[in-house]
Records
---
Amino acid sequence: MPTQRRIERHQLPYYLKVFNRITDKPMGYIGNVSVNGLMLISQLPMLVGARFEMCLKIPGQCCLHVIEFSGTCQWSREDVTPGSFDSGFALVAPPADYVEMVDALRLYFSFHPLAASA
């Protein structure tokens, strides 16, 4: 029986669209991220064991920022939402801009309590 990983992840459904880097067709949306992987929410199941060439297109102030990366599908299963599938990907040598995006998302979505004043 496979061991379940316990990596802190941040939930991002329907915000960041993932594209196939080769065909430029949408694959789905990021469900959550970690530095080494992501969960993709899609309309079709993904082929477990297959390597996918993916990219994110993030709008910026002056231009579109494209983050390209490769990932191997570790698992794929039907979501509780009819017509949706969740698939887990391990990234192959995540590029620096992907790691920076995960760090920025972690900072943005984290709760930072204010320091108590005396």
Note: The chain has one domain: 10-108.
---
Amino acid sequence: MVTAAVILASEGANPLVPNWWEILVTAVAFAVLLFVVTKFIAPTFEKSYTDRVEAIEGGIEKAEEAQAEANALLEQYKAQLMDARTEANGIREAARAEGAQILADLKEKAAEESARITAQAQVQIESERVAAVNSLRNEVGTLATSLASKIVGEALDDDARSNRVVERFLADLENQSNAGASK
């Protein structure tokens, strides 16, 4: 078996040194490949890289703007919430004050109504007392006249005389009740 090393050794060529036409073909292929890469592929990669960098930086800027806007909205919301709480406290205090005022008004009206009802009741009681006293006087006068006429045995039909007798009788009764009350 004949090996490649034996064939090369017989031709007298050194296996470590390549042929000139191989070097030329490799150099031309490398130059064409380098031209294609620098002319078409590298700009595409560079454009893609630039687009990606711009997108990332733009995204970061947009995120920072959105964060700043969100922070501003949060501060605005907090301020509105604080204003709403302050207003609610004011409304609550006003309602309490108004409730206290209404309660005071109602108490005052109730006191006035109570005083009016009491005064009206006093007037009514006084008028009923006067009516009862008059009714009792008439009745007591009639009874006293009839009793006196039975006791005395003579008729006391004379109105003037019967009225004097009744008045004297009632005056005596009042004096006795006043004397008994003062003891």
Note: Helices lie at 4-11, 20-152, 159-182.
---
Amino acid sequence: MELGHNWHKWKEILGGAVGLGERVGMDEESINNAAYRLGDFFAGTLDPANHEQRLMKELWEEGNEEERKTLASLMARTAHKASTKH
């Protein structure tokens, strides 16, 4: 599975997913839980395609569950913000 070698494109895809979740009525907690599950899947399954994704994987692997949830929430919010600038 290729999610994009370009960091900005990857953030745009993630931001679009967050926006879709909002449009279908998901609240922030549900979106953050989905981001956490995706982060866990990505960290355990996919080889990072760029330096930024590698850093995210390393942070994920180092963090405990609470820290991972925070990281997932921050990434979802950052990606959504970046995707709405266009």
Note: The radius of gyration is 12 Å.
